[in-house]
Amino acid sequence: MSRIVECVPNFSEGNDQNVIRQITAAAESVEGVRLLDVDPGQATNRTVVTFAGAPEDVVEAAFRAIKKACEVIDMSRHKGAHPRFGATDVCPLVPIAGVSMEETVEFARSLARRVGEELCLPVYCYENAAFSPERRNLAAIRAGEYEGLKQKLADPRWRPDFGPAEFKARSGATVIGARDFLVAYNINLNSTSTRRANAIAFDIREKGRVLRRGDPVTGEIVKDDKGNPVNVPGALKCVKGIGWFIEEYGIAQVSVNLTNISVTPIHVAFDEACRRAEARGLRVTGSEIVGLVPLQALLEAGRYFLRKQQRSAGVSDAELIKIAVKSLGLNDLYPFKPEEKIIEYVLAKGAPQRLVDLSLRAFVEEAASESPAPGGGSVSAAVGALGAALGTMVANLSAHKRGWDERWEVFSAWAEKGKARHDELLRLVDEDTAAFNALMAAFALPKKSAEEQAERKRRVQAATRGAMEAPLRVMQVALATMEMARAMAEIGNPNSVSDAGVAALCARTAVRGAFLNVKTNAKGLEDKGVVAEILARGAALEEQARAAEEEILALVAAKL
Predict the structure, then answer these.
(1) Active-site residue among 180, 203, 430, 432?
(2) Which domain-ending residue is among 145, 178, 211?
(3) Count of domains in the chain?
(4) Do residues 73 and 19 lie in contact, with contact meaning Cβ atoms separated by under 8 Å?
(5) Is 423 a residue of the active site?
(6) Which residue of the set 82, 271, 317, 423 is catalytic?
(7) Residue 470, exposed/middle/buried by CB under 10 A (0-12, 13-18, 19+)?
(8) What local confidence, expressed as pLDDT, does residue 184 receive?
(9) Which residues of the chain are under the pLDDT cut of 70?
């Protein structure tokens, strides 16, 4: 799954398990959506549900869950410790992978519009999906809670963004938005002192600490002209924090919420806490991630710590995660299991096996079977991925070559480029087969009536276009890997120059093989203008690959 959005709706029921199950079942009824967590609270009488999947599927699941909540929750009888004003109190969408915040905002607003129109609920949009600055803050929208909602809806300033400005006693109102991923993150100290943990939290959190005259703990609080306490900001943006003592482990922790990990990533918060702890005579022994975390967050951490060591960061995801776990001390309190803590890995459980997950022998035997897929397109992508991997290997070996220490960054940059390209070519191994299967499925559609014939034709043409574009992308990415092969032949470790040559040969094979697939699928596309344009692009790519291979092999031959 290359595009993932998470949804974290909060429902105003935390005690009746039957009600909660009905709501979660509604969300799970959408194919492709995975329920990740259900966290009911009795005192708050509120349940936080987390599910994820492709954006369109998640939006549908959220709508079904909100609809079911309207049916099974009666807000006129609700009591709880947490602020609330609707059966579905708040429903944020969070981009995880392959989806921008701008796209997530549009998904949130489309969900809000549908809830307002189809369920006739008052809906407000908040955070990044807000239509005005004063509606970004959830607390401002929810001020007055359910008990003050009728009066709020009568105020023209608080007209809902979608749905009627009418008080619905049973369902209340709901808030739908788009926000950044929030990471609940605890940093472990070699101390039992809550006060010292709090001091470090105040050092690093954005809010900082209250400014006092004289003694920083007991001194008089400094206030501004309006009588409000003056704060000294902490070191990190988008970080909330507090110190506490965890009896279960017998240690104090700096507990932080990272509200935007693109501004302050996990590794930055960890290193800053280490510096502040050391300045106070303490030591950070490790940390823990509460709940799930996006894969990218740990990959970035792995790269960060490798660069600090002046090591190449163009290594596998598994190695990057290993470095991140070791460096952040995520095994300090209990074993960190990537397959249970990384969102993408959790979603992958139970999914159909991909071609790239097969062993090399199994892939070869699958290609040799009577099935027409995987075929030449997938094999071309696989050969291209091997070529990119070889070029990446040369870059990594060069980054670590004795006597070349001052050049490690140059080779690390090449290795990271190579890794990105072999990752994409691996993805295209399955995408090419998926495009072929989509074409076969379109051909299998019924064609009895005129309407069915027209729909079948439309689907066949769209699938044929897709079956041409997948191998065309293989050509583009494989050609791009030749830039790295050329660089490694010129400046890379001379002991591996032959590997740079093989990388170029694999890339050229991938380009030529994928172009054959483009050509064979072009015969089925009726739009001859599009066919001519795609074939011209393919021919240009093939010629560039031929010239690049010739140049690279000449460089290799000169060094052998």
Answers:
(1) 432
(2) 178
(3) 3
(4) yes
(5) no
(6) 82
(7) buried
(8) 87
(9) 1
